[in-house]
């Protein structure tokens, strides 16, 4: 009897991640070129050709196409090579040394998202080393500038070179960093299925001005400001149970204690409209609250700079976020009016683009992602999530792809590693990244 040949071991993503972290691709300004060139070299070592392209030679996009077995449609893997700055932060270990200490890789980008890029690269190199081809063609896009508007990166690529992505139905990218600890002894695996979009507004409040030495008139703009801020504090916009959220609440209800499960079921059925903050860690509560409704936050307030003049005009800028789905800016402003009243002047400052498929159906592709997670971590709970902020997925979705945020990590249950994105001491357990590389390898080998 001949002994079965053992396949070559999987390529370890950790040395790749350490190298990636050592490129200071801090955005602004970006400087992603050396990082992109390193990825190109790494791929070339496995016989994979790639192209560097973009509007700025110092900030190239990298695109590679790896031929598949023709058993599945092509699949896009997209990752950003830039990271946010570290200025003003106190780090325990230097942020750009890529140190491996006690099983954790330290550095800016360890989670967001050089860890994810390392997973993708390791999965592709493992396929190559084992002499295997992916189920369908794989297009890898490593883009700059995600952290600062995406103009040099996915924005340029999707506008100028849509031909590179023709016929790709599905895309995998970052998950938007949902750290979920709904139960401290349970590990949750977020699968990003949709993103909220921005709707930035300026509200103007007017009233009678005058000399501040007198008792103010009854209709002061400052009083209207007080009313506005009080209303924003005390009232929430209505809940909308989107299909992804319904599924998320259903899966969560099955994985948490009975008391919380009952409340989540009530939310799902529309029998309650507020998140049970008293039963949740506040970070989880705030996160869940943001998936249930459009949100609004007053962020910039401008008024006179004269201490002895009563201002006759005050403006309040609102950072609003609209849920995925068919909701328009008009729908959003309509809901907001119920809170701020009919008289306030509202001006639209910025509207995030609405993607043609606002919420991918929980399709066979989604089910495959869940199946891989269940095989790889039988105790974990996969959850479809809506990303409260936006990533490059919105740009690729504009080309008609269903985009999923899927960078699986085997993190200790109850840990909050993802909370360190953009913050000091960003780090990731090495085994969490190896787990993700293995999940991606399984996906590339057999996807719908
Ligand atoms: Zn990111």
UniProtKB/TrEMBL annotation:
Span of domain Peptidase M20 dimerisation: 194-341
Cofactor: Zn(2+)
Keyword Lipid biosynthesis tagged: no
Protein name per UniProt: M20/M25/M40 family metallo-hydrolase
PROSITE patterns according to UniProt: ARGE_DAPE_CPG2_1, ARGE_DAPE_CPG2_2
Native organism taxonomy: Bacteria, Bacillati, Actinomycetota, Actinomycetes, Kitasatosporales
SUPFAM superfamilies reported for this sequence: Bacterial exopeptidase dimerisation domain, Zn-dependent exopeptidases
An MF annotation (GO) of this entry: hydrolase activity
Domain of life according to the entry: Bacteria
InterPro entries: ArgE/DapE_CS, Bact_exopeptidase_dim_dom, Peptidase_M20, Peptidase_M20_dimer, Peptidase_M20A
Family statement: Belongs to the peptidase M20A family.
Keywords of this entry: Hydrolase, Metal-binding, Zinc
């Amino acid at each position: 009897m001949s002994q079965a040949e053992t396949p070559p071991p999987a390529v370890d993503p950790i040395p790749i991640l350490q190298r990636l972290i050592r490129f200071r691709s801090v955005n602004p300004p970006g400087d992603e070129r050396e990082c992109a060139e390193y990825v190109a070299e790494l791929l070339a070592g496995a016989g994979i050709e790639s192209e560097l392209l973009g509007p700025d030679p110092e900030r190239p996009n990298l695109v590679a196409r790896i031929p598949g077995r023709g058993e599945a449609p092509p699949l896009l893997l997209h990752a950003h090579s830039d990271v946010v700055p570290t200025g003003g932060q106190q780090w325990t270990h230097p942020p750009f040394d890529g140190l491996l200490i006690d099983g954790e890789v330290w550095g800016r980008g360890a989670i967001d998202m050089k860890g994810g890029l390392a997973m993708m690269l390791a999965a592709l190199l493992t396929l190559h080393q084992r002499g295997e081809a992916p189920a369908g063609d794989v297009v890898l896009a490593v883009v700059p500038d995600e952290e600062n508007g995406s103009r040099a990166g996915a924005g340029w690529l999707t506008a100028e070179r849509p031909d590179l992505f023709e016929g790709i139905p599905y895309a995998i990218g970052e998950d938007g960093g949902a750290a979920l600890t709904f139960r401290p002894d349970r590990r949750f695996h977020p699968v990003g299925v949709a993103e909220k979009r921005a709707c930035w507004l300026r509200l103007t409040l007017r009233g009678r001005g005058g000399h501040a030495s007198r008792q103010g008139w009854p209709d002061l703009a400052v009083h209207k400001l007080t009313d506005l801020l009080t209303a924003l504090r005390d009232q929430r916009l209505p809940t909308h149970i989107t299909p992804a959220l319904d599924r998320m609440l259903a899966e969560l209800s099955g994985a948490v204690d009975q008391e919380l499960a009952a409340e989540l079921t009530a939310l799902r059925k529309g029998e309650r409209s507020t998140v049970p903050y008293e039963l949740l860690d506040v970070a989880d509560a705030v996160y869940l609250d943001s998936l249930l409704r459009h949100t609004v936050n007053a962020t910039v307030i401008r008024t006179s700079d004269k201490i002895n003049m009563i201002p006759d005009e005050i403006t309040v800028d609102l950072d609003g976020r609209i849920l995925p789905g068919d909701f328009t800016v008009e729908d959003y402003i309509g809901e907001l009016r119920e809170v701020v009243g009919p008289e306030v002047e509202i001006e639209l400052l910025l509207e995030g683009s609405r993607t043609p498929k606002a919420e991918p159906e929980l399709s066979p592709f989604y089910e495959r992602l869940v199946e891989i997670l269940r095989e790889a971590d039988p105790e974990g709970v996969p959850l479809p999530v809506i990303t409260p902020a936006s990533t490059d997925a919105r740009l690729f979705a504009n080309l008609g792809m269903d985009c999923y945020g899927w960078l699986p990590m085997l993190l200790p249950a109850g840990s909050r590693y993802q909370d360190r994105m953009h913050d000091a001491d960003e780090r990731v357990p090495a085994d969490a990244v190896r787990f993700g590389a293995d999940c991606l390898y399984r996906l590339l080998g057999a996807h719908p």
